[in-house]
Amino acid sequence: MRWGTVGDKDPCRLHARIRSQEACAAATERVLAAAGKYANRLHLLHISTLAEALLLDDKRPVRNKRVTAEACLPHLYFSDQDYQRLGNSIKWNPAIKTSGDKQGLLYALLTGHLDIIATDHAPHLPAEKKGGYLEAKSGGPLVQHALQMLMELCRQGQISLTQIVEKTSHHVAEVYRIPDRGYIREGYYADLVLVDPGLPATVTKDTLYYKCGWSPLEGQTFQSSVIHTWVNGRLVFNKEKFDQNVRGMRLHFEKVR
């Protein structure tokens, strides 16, 4: 579809048509062609359409792939049907696409076309998300509820717990060649999360940890809650309380990637 000048009064729901499936697929095809020509190692971020995902058909173990790719949570959780209800709060780049793409990305993850589930976090201030189409910034806060969103998809039968762990932890360590992380193994760093799958939690402004003070998920009740989080074996989140004295650690990577 050809578009003329986009105006600030155009509705946010057009974002998915302006930054279209065709544009995303064409861009990914060009990058894949360049990677193939020069034999580059390539990782594709934020695949948002089924058409793009189907361009990736390497069935080797993820560690052996020369091209890997990820889907991002906004594209797995929302669709263009949510623009009318949520408006600018789900204006993301790449744009959130159709419900067919949303289901297609899950299919691509489960069949190995896509390797990783990624989070996204662009904590714009509420004022920066207001206004017309051209004025409102793209992106939003999301990382706090990422695991709860995936647990909700699991509860709906769309992905298993084993697949969540594989796509958010195991494969991250394999794709980026990060030693001693990504698995629960003796001698590995203990980066762990304890979830209560039967403790509902409603997202409200009072429960947000974001300094920007808003979330596109406000009002939603998740059926699970994060209880504890350990980083490098140290408890940093304990029943809604943070240990501010614990800091992270620089990651190390294998030389050959």
Textual characterization of the structure:
With 257 residues, the chain is of the alpha/beta class. The protein has a domain at 12-184: Metal-dependent hydrolases (TIM Barrel, Alpha-Beta Barrel), CATH 3.20.20. Helices cover 28% and strands 15% of the residues. It is built from eight helices and nine strands. It has helices at residues 15-18, 21-38, 50-53, 73-77, 83-86, 99-110, 146-155, 161-175; strands spanning 42-47, 67-72, 116-118, 192-196, 201-202, 221-222, 225-231, 234-238, 241-242. The strands form three sheets. The chain has a four-stranded antiparallel sheet with strand order 4-7-8-9, with no helix packed on it. It has a three-stranded parallel sheet with strand order 1-2-3. It has a two-stranded antiparallel sheet with strand order 5-6. It is globular, with a radius of gyration of 19 Å. The termini are far apart. The mean pLDDT is 93.
List key phrases describing it.
single chain, 257 residues, alpha/beta, TIM Barrel, four-stranded antiparallel β-sheet, 15% strand, globular
CATH class of the domain at 12-184: Alpha Beta
Strand percentage lies at 5-15%
Span from first to last CA?
40 Å
Query: Which structural class is indicated by helix and strand composition?
Result: alpha/beta
How are strands sequenced across the largest beta sheet?
A: 4-7-8-9
| Helical proportion, percent range | 25-40%
**Helical segment count:** 8
CATH superfamily annotation of the domain at 12-184: Metal-dependent hydrolases
Radius of gyration: 19 Å
**Overall 3D geometry?**
globular
- String of helices and strands: HHEHEHHHEHHEEEEEE
CATH topology of the domain at 12-184: TIM Barrel
